[in-house]
Every structure is written in C-alpha cells, then in structure tokens.
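Practice record 12: protein with adenosine monophosphate.
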Amino acid sequence: MTPTTPDDTPFARIAELTQQLEATTKRLKKRALLAAFLRSLRRDEVAPAVHLVIGRIFAESDARALNVGWATLKKALDGTKQATLVPRSLTILDVSRAFAQIAEAHGADSTKARRRLLESLLGRASQDERDVLLKNVFGEMRIGVNEGVMLEGIADATGIDPDAVRTAHMFLGDLGRVAEIALFEGADALRSRGLRLLAPMKPMLAEMAEDLDEVLAEHGGETAIEYKLDGARIQIHREGDAVRVFSRRLSDVTSSLPEIVAIARSLPASEFLLEGEVVATDHEGKPLPFQDLMRRFRRVHGIEASKEEIPLKLYLFDLLYVDGRSLIDTPYRLRWEALERLVPPELLTARRVVQRKEDIESFLQEALAAGHEGLMAKQLDSAYSVGKRGKKWFKIKPADHLDLAIVAAEWGSGRREGWLSNYWLAVRDEKTGEFQMIGKTFKGLTDAEFETMTERMRSLATSEERWGFHVRPEVVVEVAHNEIQRSPHYSSGFALRFARIVRIRDDKGPEDVDTYARLKQLYAKQFERKGRGPDEL
Ligand code: AMP
C-alpha cells in the first residue's frame, strides 16, 4: 500500500468518531461531531470517509460490491490471528483503496485474492479499527448516523442549507461527492448539480393509499391512474448518440438491456430522459415472474442469448427532459402530454384520468386481470419530486387478508367510549403455540358489533389493565391490510399497515389463525419486489 504522507488522515480517526457517535443519542451532537470531522479532511479523503462512516463503502450509484462472504471473512480473520503482523498505521485512503481492490478482484482465484487483501487490511488494523472494518464489510454500520444525519453534518460543516444538500444528493446519488463539492466548491456549485443527462437521479416514490377516498381527496377530486407494472423501474437518458439506462438504485444497466437502448435510439428526439418499467415476458407477451427479469438485469455476458430467452417489454410513464429543457417542475399533466408526443402509443403505460371511485375500482380489476400488480394514482398538477416519497403519487394494491386472533382489547374513546373496541391482533407461532402481536385496529366493525364484542371480550378476560383486558385468544377476525412492515413495537417483529377488520370469523377457532411462518413468507414475498433485485443493482 502507499506510503503515508504526513497529511494523510489516519483511519483511527474514523474509529474514534464512530465511538463518539455511538456514545450520544443527541442528533445535534452527532451533527456537530460529523461537521468537525468533515472539516478536518483533505479533499481526496472526503468521499471515501463519508462512505465509510455511513457504512456503504461505495456510493449508491456505484455498482461495485465487495463480494466477501462469511466464509472468506472468517478465513481472513483466522489468518490475521496467526500472522505476526506489526500493526502499521492505516489511513482512510489505504482502507478505501483496499476495499476497491477487493471489489475489483476477479478471475479464477478471486476468492483467494479477496481473502488475502482482507487479511492484510485486517492485519494492519487495531481492535477498534477492525470493528469498523467488519461493520463496513457487512454493510451494517448502525452507529446512529444514517444518511439523514450525515446530510445535516455536511450542512453544518459548510453552512449550506440542509435542503440544498438533500436535493444535490438526489441528483448525484453519492453522498461522498455531495460532501466533497459542498466543502470544497460551495453552495453554488452544489446547486448547479441539478438534472444532467447521462447522470442518474433518484426517482420519485409513491405512498401506499389507505383507501380510494383518500386518493381522490388528496388529489383534489381528480387523479390519473396508471397500471402498476410488476417489473423494474428504469430511467433512460439520451444525449445524441449516447444512451444510458439506470436502475432505480442508480446503477448503470445499459449493457444488459440492448433492446431498450435500441428503442431509445429510434425515438424522434436527440435529448431526453424517460422513465418507465421493464417487464420480462414470455414469447406470447405475458408477464413472467420477477426472478426472470432479475436474471436479465444481472447478465453481463451472453446478452444476445438471454434476449431471445427472456424478451423484455417496456412501458413508459414519465418524461423529465426533452430537447434542452428540464420538465422536473412541469406539472405531470403536461409531462404526460409531452410523453405522448414523443413515443408511440404501444410504449405508453395504460392510463386514465378519473373522478370517481368506481372508475378506479374497475381499472384496478382490469389491471389485475391483465396480470399487473395494481395501480398508481398521480396528481395531475404535481411536479416531479426527485427522490421523495409522498402523496402526489399513490400506489393502490388489492389488500391482503390474514386471519388473526384478538389477544387484548382496549377501551375506546370519543364515539367508541364505553366499548372495548381497539383490538390487539396476533398470529400463531406454530412452534411454541404462542400468539404474537402484529398490530392493533379499531376499524371495520359496526356499532352493534362493538357492543357484542365488548361483552365477549369481558367474558374472555384473563387480566384487567387500566386500558382494558387481556383476553384468551378465541375470537378470530379476518383482517385486511395493505402492507407488512418490520417493526420493533410488537413481539413478532412485524406490523400491519392500515389493518382493518373485514369480518368476524365465528366459523374459525384459534387453531385456524394464520401462522408466524406464513406472515414471514408474505413479508419475504413483498420484500423480494421492494428491496431486492434490480432495485438493489
Ligand atoms: P413500490 O416499490 O411498491 O414502492 O412501488 C413503486 C414502484 O412501482 C416504482 O418504483 C416502479 O418501479 C413501479 N411502477 C410500476 N408501474 C408504475 C407506474 N405506472 N408509475 C410509477 N411507478 C410504477
């Protein structure tokens, strides 16, 4: 590795900072620590340091990965123990270069090469430094500085408005670069890093709709609904002959998707940024499972063969730049019109503008029948908010149902005063026979049902609390929900989003309650779509 120059910041500074960050829960303190640290760095150290502190190693837009599995790490650790290495001081740049070398190791002996590199890196580290390195390797720094705190630290270090830092991050997709520009080029330079062709930006995101009334109310009585396609989101940039395609996670996937590049070249404009969804299909054009699409995304070799094997279909739904003009702040309604002018109708996502709930429902049924996931509802006057999740875009999916046991009931307030009407819902852990809570709801029952349920809860009570009763888990209810989330609040580790009781299942007993295993399975299925695959590429 390179010799240390007097100016190089030792890696020990990151280990020390990590401990200081861990020692405080105060956000302001963390921000101040980060700001002071950032200001102490040389320009070429900033980006690597930022990545190491947030536990990323590489920028989000960087497709490289360490590819170090548990076995390799274990061997490297054992090797380190045996070796009598004299600890030499490690700098931030040493660590960043070593990680780059590990990621770039390829060929037949790459596993061994990675292990050796890792061994030599760990061998040079002190115990504290080693802790930080290991956390980085596993991508789980969890030292209380997520990206949000780091953004604020950068703002504090430079005096630049946190919102400006955040926006720049959406366009650059690399917090390290953001920090470097903020510290060494200033606010104006950061601001000028807006939308640029051939450089990816973070996509606008949607919130889950609670119900269709909410959608229409939020969107002012009128909304555009589009099929929610079950594929992978891409952004297609063209500048003259150059075409680049990026995934939702901002990786460059151009070379895996030649047919998308060909489509981009065929369109009658020389500069644009389009957004859409690619779906893998069979030879009849029917959507294929998501895994098949992932295989296409991952392919780097044998693209021609996989083009034959897994054809792709492109559905476009947004246009953000055309012929020298950014449309980011242009209302969605006009962006769609510009999109219609640019691309042939068969490339457009199926869409309707509606004012009535019934029209959303019938379009939803149509989308599901055609094998899609649901609908997106988009507010017609909304600008494109880069990288943000909000109510301008809603996702509408059919609710999933689970049969759950009521394990406790709370007294209601307001209109529900005097009724045991807020129910604790639980799945059955098939291994232990215990019930594990996954949420509460007071939604879905009529007044008459609350009345009888109050009596039933009293009769099943096992203990009384200030707020109500714990009860024997005998009443089974069918519960609709829109999403399963990870949650520290309940013993199961999961929570249901927008849970509501669809009906009381008197035909079912506690042994019919959905199991913990099924809950986990449903979550994994959902997670497969959301967090994995092209989204992570
Ligand atoms: P989710 O991943 O559940 O948060 O849903 C948002 C994702 O749905 C987006 O990132 C897109 O990949 C995908 N999607 C499918 N169809 C559309 C559409 N018509 N408009 C926007 N996003 C869509």
